[in-house]
Amino acid sequence: MTLGGHVLGVAESHGDGSQSTIAGAVVRSDRALDGLAFSTISHGGSDATVRIATLFEDLGREDVQSVVLAGVAPAWFNLVDLTTLAERVDRPVVAVSFEESEGLEPALREQFSGDALADRLAVYEALPERHPVAVNDETLFVRAVGCEESAAADLVRRHTPEGGRPEPLRVARLAARAADAFRTEAAARRS
């Protein structure tokens, strides 16, 4: 399966301490920006999957063929359930991380306990494995639901013209940061 056409990249800016801004950037196959949407997710919460799905639905873009996420644990371990997200948006979902790691389980056990830990571990353990993907001179780590590993790797490579960050994620991260800066400035003017 080849994943082409429009891609929705979703990335975060860490926000004000209680929530992160997420931006969704629709990027065409020629890497041109073709739409933006914004939402927030709570730090340490469990609303990331629902908020990303709602962001996708609010865009109303049937031409988006896949969703690419910057990682699976935005907003201080607000884990994204990739399978649930893929089912809800009815598109392949690819999560990209940028560093090699031993995994999130030790950090989850350090930061959470009881039901909060159990819920996060259930989501984390259900995630597909990360696979290294060589992109330009970098190695990215990719998880995919709804498509083959090879299709996910091809998608990431085709949308990374240089460096090691796919264009939909680069643009989404810039947009999320700009939205945070705007909100901070607007709040300061109101004070």
Automatic annotation (TrEMBL):
<dbReference type="InterPro" id="IPR002802">
    <property type="entry name" value="Endo_dU"/>
</dbReference>
<dbReference type="Pfam" id="PF01949">
    <property type="entry name" value="Endo_dU"/>
</dbReference>
<protein>
    <recommendedName>
        <fullName>UPF0215 protein GQS65_09190</fullName>
    </recommendedName>
</protein>
<comment type="similarity">
    <text>Belongs to the UPF0215 family.</text>
</comment>
